[in-house]
Amino acid sequence: MRRRSKSSPCVNRGAGKNVSVLGTVAYQVPKPETYLYKSRIFLRHIQVKGMKGKRNIMIVVGLVFFIIAPSFSFVLTPSMKKIPDNLHEVVYYEGKLGMLNTSTLNMDYINIEIKREVNAIKKEGDVLLIREDVTVKDKRTGKEIPDLSMTTIYGIDPRTSKNVPGYGDTERVGQWIFPVGVKKKDYLVWNSDMDEPYREGYVDVNDAAGIAHYMGEKEIAGVKTYEYRGHQDEVYIGPGPEGTPPESRMYYMGDQTAWAEVKTGLIVDYDKHVVQYIEFPDLHKLPSDLNMTAELKGKVSVFNLSKAGTGDWYDRYNATVVNHVWVENPETDSLYMVG
Predict the structure, then answer these.
(1) Per-state percent for the chain, helix, strand, coil, to nearest 5
(2) Which phi-psi region, left, alpha or beta, contains residue 3 (left: φ > 0; alpha: ψ -120 to 50)?
(3) 295: Cα separation from own chain's centroid
């Protein structure tokens, strides 16, 4: 969902910098080697696919770009014209979670299961409030992965499926899902991955919502669909987490393609890839919060002229040497070190 042109994510930006990825969500992603840039280390990525073999292709509704797609099993027809007030659906996805093994520098993968529960919780005038609860578990152990689980509240127009500003847990704009009777046109779609950085003021509306570009018609499993494609390229979403240098910056980039049934707007297929990574400051520059102590222990030999002719001209001591270095005036361009 490109909002503005930026440099390609495949270009090594900032030689001398070190970057590590916090997390990615991906659908049909290439092999991890594709994402090993010269200056970046990817720590996590997830491959997720809808369980199409376990449900009718025509009863999967809706996809919010750049989040795991909400799917509804009620039969939505063009005559229905709106999301029902009593919506309650549970959808399951399965895939793989990859984590960087810092010992081998290879990706270790586990199978995961994603449960998405979607409920219409109440009406406020013409606005329908929707709650989505997402739970991610290790498929083998059944243990929940809290960092990937979330709860989101949307306030939508049930007839257009658009977000209504002033409702929900974030001031969103654009589509929540595609509307009934989807058109051959571009749609403005809210990126829920941007909820937190938007609330904290790191991104504006132009970065939090992107364009789903109409790409043409395609037949999938005998169903006529419209193809929509979006892209976001290296959006700054805030500083690095605690423990990283204060100059560290976190970025987000992603690609998404969805195929919607032409009358109902139902999503019959989709492809998604999202990456988050941290960009560290230039490694040739000392961090502004430098505060370190080096301690050396050993033996010291000192020449003693008064011992001339004795056969041993040195005084010997067990010694400990401590060197403490820190930064003063870190607000300036030049760092003043004291040690």
Answers:
(1) 10, 50, 40
(2) alpha
(3) 40
